[in-house]
Amino acid sequence: MVELLQTLLQRPNFIVFVILFLWGIYIMAAHPNFVKKLIGLYIVQTSAIFFLVAFSAKEGATVPIIPDGETVVNALNYANPLPHVLTVTAIVVQVATLGVSLALVTAIYRHFGSLEEDEILEQLDEQ
Amino acid sequence: MSSNLPMLLFLIPFVVGVAIPTVTVKRRALCPIIALGTVSVMVLLAIANLHVVQTKGPIEYALGGWGAPIGIAWLDDSLAAVVILAICMAALLSLIYGQVTVSSEHKKSMQYYTLILILLSGLVGIVFAADLFNVFVFLEVAALTGYALVGAGGGKASLYAFRYLLLGSFGATLYLLGLGHLYVATGTLNMADLAVRIPEILTSTAVVSGLIYIFLGLSIKMALIPLHSWLPDAYVNAPSAVSPLLASTVTKVALVAWVRIEYSLIAPNVEVGHVPVLVVLEELGVLAALIGGALALIQTDLKRMFAYGGVSHIGLILIGVSLGNTTGFTGGMFYLINDMFMQAALFMIAGILLHYHGARTLDDIRDTARFSPWLTGSLVVAAIAMVGLPPTGGFFGKWNIILGALEAQHYVAAFAVLGSTLLTLAYFLKIFASWFFQPQAGDTAAVELSGASRISLGIISITMIALGLSSDSVFQLLLATVNSGGV
């Protein structure tokens, strides 16, 4: 038990990731309001991006650009650019998703006059 | 020129899709012509691409001239070429069929064509991508247009589109997490490199959890039971012009992405902690095939019935590709190509019924006196294909899945295929019982279908039979993929 705690505490980044991920899922599942569900989804997506950033973090590393004329390259001195590229692309995808989802939420509000899931389900039952 | 075919297949729909709103803002009548022309060109290019792949072997396309380890690679092998051709043909038929309900005066017709074309470019990207992250990006391109298309009808559809979006984006996030895990464990995202590095460390926790995340994410996208709940609501409420294309392509292409990952990373008979991985996947397929069929049987709404039918067929294909032998694999992939056309045909029939007869449920069909022979004919062909009788393609797919199951001595899987066939037969009997029921009113003339619906129904029926008749050559193509080592 103590060992488990020790290994966990050595990785605070990943604990934050797990907390964000579960928190987001909880909001998505538990809140009846659609905008809050979206916020939950956003937190889940952010936690995945946080995970990508967390494992690529490197202390004392610099940008991976080799200066002119340098022949000996020590890879340990440079940060790995690929996870950051993934992160930027994932953020772009996340923004696009947010745009589409807000448009859909607007359409739902125009049709049902409400954003609460239980009220909308009641309306559907009446039809 | 020939080596740029994959890129052309991706760029043409994308560029045209983005250009449509600017070009046709004053002349809306041009939209359908441009879209149909583009997709026809894509079909021709896909045929050319298939020919090139057949004669010269797989093409590895390095984007921007940067090769695989540093740059992003696309793999254009015979499996990809066949699937792309099927996607393009299904899209062309769906667009022709779309003319029935989407007139150029329609307020949203321009957006419809734009979204369809961008959806197509996303699907092409998923099939070609040989890099896990590329698959993620294109999955999201396809999924975002899918959400928009489902919600395009407004009203109730936007609610179901929103639910689809919540689940779909969550699935994509799981996939992203999974590929992050694999990257941590191997330091690469290229599928060919992963195929070399993963098998040695398949039992490590990071790889196992990464693969589980990826599978969960993709099974939401492919609507594998029990993660299917978004699909029936979304497809039933989507506009009739949209559901054939979505039903025929989106879930299947997500499955193709999973098949590539599964086939290159997980060797047959491999066990993780005494759990045989492929058998687990196969059992999930068995459950999906049987439960999906049973759920379809208890529906009364025609579109909903067909949607659950599609869910059960995803299970069948998953059984085929998870048997771990060539027969099952080619059978499963052949069935996937067939299923694209079957789903498109079924949703076209359901859409035409709704448009011309206002019939949505089995009772509505019972009350309708006469149907056009085109509609009855194509329903019969689609039913034969779904149940899997020769000479349609459905038979050869199922036959090979069963042969593969017997070869692997997985009798549960073989019985599941038979069981789901019986369930399919049962729900089509239910439809036919209402279809051929004559209400007393009798002598009303059959409704004349428009040219667009006749053409789309006719061609798709011919395609389903032609696929069966030419099954041998398609199997040869799929075998070529398997024999070349990678998928």
Structural commentary:
- The complex is a heterodimer of chains A (127) and B (487).
- By secondary structure, chain A is mainly α.
- Chain A has one domain (2-58, 79-126): Helix Hairpins.
- Chain A has five helices and no strands.
- The termini of chain A are far apart.
- With 487 residues, chain B is mostly helical.
- Chain B has a domain at 275-487.
- A two-stranded antiparallel ribbon of chain B has the order 1-2. In chain B, strands 3-4 form a two-stranded antiparallel ribbon.
- In chain B, helix 13 (326-357) packs antiparallel against helix 18 (451-469) and helix 16 (393-407) runs parallel beside helix 18 (451-469).
- Chain B is globular, with a radius of gyration of 21 Å.
- The chains are: A mainly alpha (127), B mainly alpha (487).
Question: What is the count of distinct domains of chain A?
Answer: 1
The N- and C-terminal alpha carbons of chain B lie at a distance of 24 Å
- What name is given to the CATH topology of chain A? Helix Hairpins
The strands making up the biggest β-sheet of chain B line up spatially as 1-2
Structural class of chain A: mainly alpha
- Listing every helix as H and every strand as E from the N terminus to the C terminus, the arrangement of chain A reads HHHHH
Number of helices of chain B: 19
Helix content of chain B: over 70%
The oligomerization state is: heterodimer
* N-to-C SSE string of chain B, H for helix and E for strand: HHEEHHHHHHHHEEHHHHHHHHH
